[in-house]
Amino acid sequence: VYPRRVTTFEQVIEDLGRVEPRDAMPDDYRATLIRQIAQHAHSEIIGMQPEGAWITRAPSLRRKAILLAKVQDEAGHGLYLYAAAETLGVDRADLLDALHTGRQKYSSIFNYPSLTWADVGTIGWLVDGAAIVNQVPLCRCSYGPYARAMVRICKEESFHQRQGFESLHALSHGTPEQHAMAQDALDRWWWPALMMFGPPDSASPNSERSTAWGIKRFSNDTLRQRFVDMTVPQAAVLGLRIPDDDLAWNEERGSWDFGEVDFAELAEVVAGRGPCNAERIAHKVRADAEGAWVREAADAYAASGGAR
Ligand code: ACO
């Protein structure tokens, strides 16, 4: 009989191993994960709204089918993530209550309106593109259930990003009116997309600890820069202009310099004062109330053991 090897939380983190639900973990680690995974899950669910609004107005059956599938994928991402959060000992109903009452956040990006069909392509290209840059490193995060959920989510996000790019490409190479619509959407979504990566490193209260715990693998500013570097050449293929006069290739750094992100705007949106915050939550609360009978029926059916 071999003695059971006792591995402490600190050793697992140091060895870049995985912490699993039944392992001992510091209370703050658990709380940080619940905060981040819940915020992430809420973002997926609230993120269904700006694009969902265009399902009935998609310009062709093909575009409608793709958009339906994409929005449905976002619901699936939310469900994996709520399930990952539940392994930490919280209840999904409590997390949803925290969202509905403003006690938990969701991504700032979904508080901007989707005004035209070009916004749908732009959201796929930029918002899902930013999500991939942020989330691929999370596939290696120290908490097993979160890391594993991210693997599948990232594969689907990658498809979402490509479909957005392809849709926007059709517009930007279409009629002058379609091109102008694509440019207008890029003008409105570019800066909010950069805000998705969070406050600058110098003003990010959670970064140091989350990095030490292997939840975050790269800083907010590092990922923001990675996103800019990835996206600038793509904008050139689309023939669209990124709305930043300070955008310039920096030979020395091998990266693009870019202008100042308006972090005061990010703070306002995160504080609940963005263009659509009230509308997004009101819609979510209404959908939750209208769906209550479905959950009650499912519970009753489960309690009956499947009997008729
Ligand atoms: N929108 C809303 N809130 C934000 C945003 C944002 N774009 N960026 C940062 N915040 C919040 C943080 O949640 C934190 O709030 P809290 O401490 O009150 O909970 C606060 O601002 C300070 O920021 P940081 O200290 O930098 O927070 P953190 O270390 O959690 O980093 C980040 C923020 C990068 C968003 C991180 O939580 C993360 O990687 N989350 C997982 C990815 C995610 O949630 N993506 C959602 C959008 S993608 C999609 O759904 C398609």
Describe the structure.
InterPro entries: Aromatic_CoA_ox/epox, Ferritin-like, Ferritin-like_SF, PaaA, PaaA_PaaC. It holds the Pfam family PaaA_PaaC. This is 1,2-phenylacetyl-CoA epoxidase subunit A. Helices cover 64% and strands 2% of the residues. The chain has 13 helices and 2 strands. Helix 6 runs parallel beside helix 8 and helix 6 (117-135) packs antiparallel against helix 10 (220-238). The chain is globular. The model has no long low-confidence stretch (mean pLDDT 96). Acetyl coenzyme *A (ACO) binds next to helix 2, helix 6 and helix 9. The site of acetyl coenzyme *A (ACO) has 26 residues, from helix 2, helix 6 and helix 9.
Key words describing this protein structure:
binds acetyl coenzyme *A; 308 residues; mainly alpha; 2 strands
In short:
The chain has 308 residues and is mainly α. The chain is built from 13 helices and two strands.
Topology, element by element:
Elements: H1 9-14, H2 27-46, H3 48-52, H4 61-86, H5 92-100, H6 117-135, H7 144-172, H8 176-195, H9 207-212, H10 220-238, E1 248-250, E2 255-257, H11 263-273, H12 277-290, H13 292-303
The protein binds acetyl coenzyme *A.
Residues 35-36, 39-40, 43-44, 47, 105, 107-108, 127, 131, 134, 195-199, 204-207, 210, 216, 220, 270 line the site of acetyl coenzyme *A.
